[in-house]
Write a structure and sequence with these properties.
The structure holds two protein chains of two kinds.
Chain A: E1 5-7, E2 10-13, E3 19-24, E4 31-37, E5 44-50, E6 53-57, E7 65-68, E8 75-79, E9 88-95, E10 104-105, E11 109-113
Chain B: E1 4-5, E2 10-14, E3 19-25, E4 32-38, E5 45-51, E6 56-58, E7 62-67, E8 72-77, E9 86-93, E10 100-102, E11 106-111
Parallel strand pairs in B: 2-11
Antiparallel strand pairs in B: 1-3, 3-8, 4-5, 4-9, 6-7, 7-8, 9-10, 9-11
The chains are: A mainly beta, B mainly beta.
Chain lengths: ~110, ~110
């Protein structure tokens, strides 16, 4: 069964460092997403991406965040200068169509900022 | 602002009983809803979805009910099993379909 894969599963970084989280969406999917989940809280939308550009982003997704699809298979989330409050699980998701397409999630990347 | 929320943070049921998890939404323009299950340390896993032109949809042991009049969504799990223990989130699709908004989650605990 196709799945969304994410790396690394866990990353520990120092405050102020840059972090890149990687995702390989399901191959025939066209819509890509990043969500985050602070421990014990709900899943929060960060950004959606389609046709090589951001289609929607939340208030959380400020200038410190960026996304890229560099090679047609990977979908990355970069945090330029991490803060303590960036510590969370980051989930990548993809789907084949809008509105009624199931959103498939990866297993997540846990980011710990010290 | 628009939001999706849950009535109960924790639901404890006996194995074999039926479970009902509730969700309220406030965006009347949302036209697609999904229930996700999240086990500890894992990503959300799709359970069942429903479009706004329906009021009920059934899957294997699960049923989703949608009441658009009161903007209420529920997930019914029949014959709850220990493997059903997880956090359950409802989510709504916004008008443009670009974003899925999650509710706060309900933890289901199944007692053997």
């Amino acid at each position: 069964e196709p799945e969304v894969t994410q790396t690394p599963s866990h990353q520990v970084t120092q405050m102020g460092q840059e972090v890149i989280l990687r995702c390989v969406p399901i191959s025939n999917h066209l819509y890509f997403y990043w969500y985050r989940q602070i421990l014990g809280q709900k899943v929060e939308f960060l950004v959606s991406f389609y046709n090589n550009e951001i289609s929607e982003k939340s208030e959380i997704f400020d200038d410190q965040f960026s996304v890229e699809r560099p090679d047609g298979s990977n979908f990355t989330l970069k945090i330029r200068s991490t803060k303590l409050e960036d510590s969370a699980m980051y989930f990548c998701a993809s789907r084949s169509q809008l509105n009624t397409g199931e959103l498939f999630f990866g297993e997540g990347s846990r980011l710990t900022v010290l | 602002g628009e939001n999706v929320g849950l009535h109960l943070p924790t639901l404890s049921v006996q194995e074999g009983d039926n479970s009902i998890i509730n969700c309220a939404y406030s965006n009347s323009a949302s036209d697609y809803f999904i229930w996700y299950k999240q086990e500890s340390g894992k990503g959300p896993q799709f359970i069942i979805d429903i479009r706004s032109n329906m009021d009920k949809r059934q899957g294997q042991r699960v049923t989703v009910l949608l009441n658009k009049t009161v903007k209420h969504l529920s997930l019914q799990i029949a014959a709850t099993q220990p493997g059903d223990s997880a956090v359950y989130f409802c989510a709504e699709n916004n008008n443009a379909g670009n974003m899925l908004t999650f509710g706060g989650g309900t933890r289901l605990m199944v007692k053997p």
